[in-house]
Design a protein that fits this description.
Rossmann fold; 235 residues; binds 2-amino-2-deoxy-6-O-phosphono-alpha-D-glucopyranose; 3-stranded antiparallel sheet; alpha/beta; NagB/RpiA_transferase-like
Length: 235
C-alpha cells in the first residue's frame, strides 16, 4: 500500500482529482468506481473545474458507484450535484445501485453482471467509515462478499445522520461487496480528519480483520491511500 501524505482537505482533493483527471485524459476508455460522502466532494469539485477549463470530454468514461440507500435516491442526487451535471458523460454510462428496485436481490446480481460486462473497474475511489467500513460493508462482512443488501450499524447511521435532516434516514443500503471492490485494478482511498485516524491506523497495522473491513485492501497489489494530517494522527 502506498501512502501519500497531504496537509489538509484542499490538497487531498486537488491531488485526488489530478490522479483521476490524468487517467481521464490519457485513457481511450475508463471504468471509474466512485464513492460518495463528504470526503470526495472536493475531488469532484476539482474534477468538474478541470473538465471545464481543459474542455475535457468524459464521453469515454463509464462510472460505477459503490452504494445507495434502500428506498432512496440520495446518492443518485449527490452524484448529479457534485459531478455528473458538470461533465459530458453519457447517461447510459453512469451506474448506481437502484435502491428503489422492486427486487433488491435481483438488483444486486444485475449490478455484479453489469460490472463484469464493463470488463471490471479500472480505478475505484473509496472513502472510509469511522468503523473502517468501505462502501457500506460494515464490520464483520466477509472479504468475499459480492454486491448485497446491508443493515447499517448504529455507528454508520449516526455518522451519516447529518445528510437526512429533512427526511427519514434509511437503515438499509445496497453496497458493492468487498470481493467486488478487491477486483478493481487500482484503488484510491481517501481519508480526511481525526475521526478517521483509528481506521487508518488499523489499515496500516497490516493485519487482516473482518472487524475492520478496510484491512481487506492490505493484500491488494495496487492501493494508494491519500491521508491528511488528522487522518494520520495515530500512525
Ligand atoms: C458512507 C459511504 C462510504 C463513505 C463513508 C464516509 O458510509 N457509504 O462510501 O466512505 O460514508 O463518509 P464521509 O466521507 O462523509 O466521512
Amino acid at each position: 500500500m502506498k501512502l501519500i501524505t497531504v496537509s489538509d482537505e484542499e490538497e487531498l482533493s486537488r491531488i485526488a482529482a489530478d490522479i483521476l483527471f490524468t487517467k481521464v485524459k490519457s485513457a481511450k476508455r475508463l471504468v471509474l468506481g466512485l464513492a460518495t460522502g463528504k470526503t470526495p466532494q472536493g475531488m469532484y469539485r476539482y474534477l468538474s473545474k478541470y473538465s471545464k477549463e481543459c474542455k475535457q470530454t468524459f464521453q469515454h468514461i463509464h462510472t460505477v458507484n459503490l452504494d445507495e440507500y434502500v428506498g432512496s435516491t440520495t446518492y443518485h442526487a449527490y452524484m448529479e450535484e457534485h459531478l455528473f451535471r458538470h461533465i459530458d458523460i453519457p447517461r447510459d454510462q453512469i451506474h448506481i445501485p437502484d435502491g428503489e428496485a422492486a427486487s433488491l436481490i435481483e438488483e444486486c446480481s444485475k449490478y455484479e453482471q453489469m460490472i463484469k460486462e464493463l470488463g471490471g473497474i479500472d480505478l475505484q475511489v473509496l472513502g472510509i467509515g469511522e468503523n473502517g467500513h468501505i462502501g457500506f460493508n460494515e464490520p464483520g462482512t466477509s472479504f468475499d462478499a459480492r454486491t448485497h443488501v446491508v443493515q447499517l450499524t448504529d455507528s454508520t447511521l449516526k455518522a451519516n445522520a447529518k445528510y437526512f435532516v429533512d427526511s427519514e434516514q434509511p437503515k438499509q443500503a445496497i453496497t458493492m461487496g468487498i470481493g467486488t471492490i478487491l477486483e478493481s485494478k487500482e484503488i484510491l482511498l481517501l481519508a480526511i480528519g481525526e475521526r478517521k485516524a483509528n481506521a487508518v491506523k488499523e489499515l496500516f497495522k497490516g493485519s487482516l480483520s473482518e472487524d475492520i473491513p478496510a484491512t481487506a485492501l492490505i493484500n491488494h497489489p495496487n492501493v494508494t491511500v491519500l491521508a491528511d494530517k488528522g487522518a494520520r494522527k495515530l500512525l
